[in-house]
Amino acid sequence: MSRSVVIVGGGLAGLSAAVALAERDFRVTLLDSRPRLGGRASSFVDQSTGELIDNCQHVSMGCCTNFDWFCRTVGIDEFFQTEEQLEFIEPPDLTSGSETMTPPRSFPLHNGPLPAPLHLANALRKHHYLSFSDQLRIATTLRTLARLQSRPSVSFAQWLVEKGQNAVAMDRFWDVVLVSALSETLDRIDVWSARKVFIDGFMANRDGWKVKVPTVPLDQLYGSVLSEWLDSHRVDWRLKTQVAQIDVTDKVQSARLRNGEDIQGSDFILAVPFHRLRELVPDGVIKDDWLRNVDQFESAPIASAHLWFDRPFTEKRHAVLIGRFSQWMFHRSAISRTESKGAYYQVVISAAREASKLRQQEVIERVLADIHEVWPESRSCELIHSRVVTEHRAVFSVVPGIDALRPQQQTSIQNLQLAGDWTQTGWPATMEGAVRSGLLAAENVLRNHGESESLLQPDLPTALLSKLVIARTV
Question: Is residue 352 within 8 Å of 301, Cβ to Cβ?
Answer without folding.
Answer: yes
